[in-house]
């Protein structure tokens, strides 16, 4: 009998004791470079883990061929392969630049880090909110 | 002269005049989308329709004996670039109380690809998890 609520069968996991442990973020950590060296989007992302266990993301945008630091943000959430898994699969983070908000949805795929950007403008520039998807290697 | 702020070259608006953001074409997303995996334990069906604010999605999860109705959620729509009105993706969040699911959807080669970022809030010990599923247009 299920003791936990669910919205689909995938959610129906009876957690074992080991699920009280955090998701292993090791495969996410490191310096990730865009597979497209001519990218006009994100050129590089760096994921680090602090002594306290917080996961931090540093992003560098491509501006006129040079990297521009977006600063560091704390990772909002890390995601596993499944509700009963501790294997890492992705993370989410948000940047608020004032004129624009960017949500980064990242997942691992075949050794690459795939980062989708949902970019929402808050100024009156007339620019369309836009979606981006880029690929990064260690 | 470049006056709009940006953090990467993709953000630079080119010749787009300042003003309210232009309406992004949502028509490619509208319709009933059915999972390509009949044995899925995730999402079985998504109904997408236009609304005054953009898009509304109605999602159904795989449950027994019948699908779980997640209800409707307003979706934000995203173009394929700052100078474009061509819809490329949309996103919505469902809050079930015990869990939140951010759904991010885009069309690739006629298939709707939906990524789910699912966060548990109930202290059940379940791991937040990522999902990725594929849907074809019905009819």
Characteristic key phrases:
heterodimer; A: mainly beta; Lipocalin; B: mainly beta; eight-stranded antiparallel beta barrel
Distance between the termini of chain A: 44 Å
Class of chain A, according to the CATH hierarchy? Answer: Mainly Beta
Beta strands of chain B, count: 8
CATH-derived topology of chain A? Lipocalin
**Beta strand count of chain A:** 9
Helix content of chain A: under 10%
Distance between the termini of chain B: 49 Å
Pattern of helices and strands of chain A:
EEEEEEEEE
Unreliable stretches of chain B (pLDDT < 50, length at least 5) are none
Q: Helical stretch count of chain A?
A: 0
Structure description:
- The complex is a heterodimer of chains A (138) and B (139).
- Chain A is mainly beta and 138 residues long.
- Chain A has no helices and nine strands.
- The mean pLDDT of chain A is 92.
- With 139 residues, chain B is an all-beta fold.
- Chain B is 0% helix and 52% strand.
- In chain B, a hairpin with a 3-residue loop joins β5 and β6 (99-108).
- Chain B is globular and about 55 Å long.
- The chains are: A mainly beta (138), B mainly beta (139).
Quick synopsis:
The complex is a heterodimer of chains A (138) and B (139). Chain A is mainly β. Helix content of chain A is 0%, strand content 52%.
Topology:
The complex is a heterodimer of chains A (138) and B (139).
Chain A: E1 30-34, E2 42-49, E3 55-63, E4 66-74, E5 77-80, E6 88-96, E7 100-109, E8 112-121, E9 130-137
Antiparallel strand pairs in A: 1-2, 1-9, 2-3, 3-4, 5-6, 6-7, 7-8, 8-9
Chain B: E1 31-35, E2 43-51, E3 54-61, E4 68-79, E5 87-95, E6 99-108, E7 111-120, E8 129-137
Antiparallel strand pairs in B: 1-2, 1-8, 2-3, 3-4, 4-5, 5-6, 6-7, 7-8
